[in-house]
Amino acid sequence: MLQASRGTVKASGNFKASEDAEVLHKAMKGLGTDEDSILQLLTARSNAQRQEIKATYKTLFGKDLVSDLKGELGGKFETLIVGLMTPPIAYDVTSLRNAIKGAGTDEKVLVEILSSRTCQQVKDIIAGYRQEYDDNLEEDVCGDTSGHFKRLLVILLQANRQKGIQGGEIENDAQALFKAGEQHFGTDEQAFVTILGNRSAEHLRKVFDAYMKLSGFEMEESIQRETSGALRDLLLAVVKCARSVPGYFAETLYYSMKGAGTDDNTLIRVMVSRSEVDMLDIRAEFRRKFACSLHSMIRGDTGGDYRKALLLLCGGDDA
After folding, report:
1. How far apart are CA 120 and CA 270, in angstroms?
2. CA–CA dist 275, 220 (Å, integer)
3. Among the listed residues 272, 268, 186, 192, the one whose alpha carbon sits nearest the alpha carbon of residue 231
4. Dihedrals φ, ψ of 292, to 5°?
5. What is the H or E stretch that residue 176 is in?
6. What angle do CA 94, 98, 99 make, to 5 degrees?
7. Backbone φ and ψ of 163, nearest 5°
8. Going by C-beta distance under 8 Å and a sequence separation of 6 or more, which residues neighbour residue 316?
């Protein structure tokens, strides 16, 4: 976890779980709720510390902290706070389960999580899913998706990407992708799925450069033209994550807020899951790609305690 220091949320130095549990209990006791105390405290603790607070709260008060929070809070603010109280792997597991088991499939969640997590994280998610639901994640994904979209998800679920750069294969991979797309009448999706699903990020970056020289197009442009629907979204996410995971999440956040209405589920999911990992890098990429800062876009697009908590997770303005 070397990159963990790129988060905006860090472990609190003079941490005492019992004191924090007292503060939260007091904030919810009696009439009315002190939302401000709750959000200030929970955004200033690491996830591991929040788990300690949860355990201590139960010991001191004989009650489940998350249940109490759910009883006191509501709406998007509640969803955000409950997300912060969930361990990271469990959070991904729940998000995937809800994406598959609801009415219809939320492909966006499958794409976002499975294209951006490390091989080890994917393995942990699969184990966590089995433990929590006594189900096989791959089987559930297969039962809910089809075609090349399903095939690429299955490859990503193997969490078996090659390591490093295969020097001799760079040109071959670029040629294969060129033949499968721009040079081919129709598109040979299988070549895209196999190469993009199995090679390492650093290898793929070299392939994209070779592809650009060969075809005159960026990989993303060819995918946009040659594929459609959920498969296109997944291929693009894999390519963008190979180039830069923070860059991918900067775009994801931007499009969750751009235009009319806000995709709050995506906004919450990314802010919660990246706050301790690479939020500083996401903010920098956001500022580089778009005409505003992440902070200012959240401020303009959300309100109330929900906005306050999101801005604390964002951790600063890059205006």
Report:
1. 19
2. 27
3. 192
4. -150, 170
5. helix 170-180
6. 115
7. -95, 145
8. 8, 283, 295
Place of tokens 């199995």: 198
CA 238 from centre of chain = 13
pLDDT, tens digit, 9 for 90 and up, residues 158-173:
999 999 999 999 999 9
Amino acid at 262: T
Query: What is the share, in percent, of the chain residues with pLDDT greater than 70?
Result: 99
The end-to-end CA distance of the chain, in Å, is: 29
Q: How far apart are CA 89 and CA 273, in angstroms?
A: 9
Tokens of 319: 């205006």
Tell me the pLDDT tens digit for each residue of 61-96. 999 999 999 999 999 999 999 999 999 999 999 999
Mean pLDDT over 19-28 rounds to 98
| Distance (Å, whole) CA 103 – CA 188 | 31
Question: What would you measure as the largest C-alpha separation in the chain, in angstroms?
Answer: 69
Written as six digits, the tokens of 181 are: 């797309």
